[in-house]
Amino acid sequence: MYQQMIFVNLPVNDLDASKRFFTELGYSINAQFSDEKAASVVISDTIVAMLLTKPFYATFTDKEIADATKTSEVLVCLSAESRAKVDELVDKAIAAGATETGPTQDQGFMYGRAFDDLDGHTWEVIWMDPAVIEG
Fold first, then answer.
1. Residue 135 pLDDT class (50, 70, 90 cuts)
2. What residues have CB less than 8 Å from 107, skipping those under 6 apart?
3. Residue of 80, 93, 90, 81 lying closest to 119 (CA atoms)
4. Strand ranges (DSSP E) for the chain?
């Protein structure tokens, strides 16, 4: 059965620093789709973050590239299998140089935290109680 994938393309200031950051979170770099202009960060079988140097990113758009440290361009949200996994990933991100953004969201059935990566892109990590999702 076909599984649709998502490729999140993000402009970065320092490709090597961004690669180190994401590998410190436990993700791998797919060398087949990486070079000096881009890095393919494998988040899951169906989610890939493409980190692109700003000059390379600019070849895909005529629009001005947002400075994610000053404006919000997108909120990337990843699911986690438990509250502990939410905390684990966000704590790893902070240890690797990210900035935690906003307060922890704890609504009982849903728990989440967020961080800004080295370039200011906001990543949310949430856990939702499977019983609530299933209805």
1. low
2. none
3. 93
4. 6-12, 28-29, 38-42, 47-53, 75-79, 99-100, 105-106, 110-116, 122-128
- What percentage of the chain carries pLDDT values higher than 90? 92
Tokens encoding 121: 């892109």
* Residue 93 neighbours by CB under 8 Å, 6+ apart: 21, 25, 115, 117, 123
- pLDDT surpassing 80 at residue 33: yes
Q: Where are the alpha helices (DSSP H) in the chain?
A: 15-24, 54-57, 83-95, 130-134
Q: Which pLDDT value is given to residue 75? A: 92
- 70: tokens are 């000053």
Task: Compute the mean pLDDT over every residue in the chain, rounded to the nearest whole number.
Answer: 96
3-state secondary structure of 55: helix
Contact 11, 57 (CB under 8 A): yes
Residue 132 has a pLDDT of 83
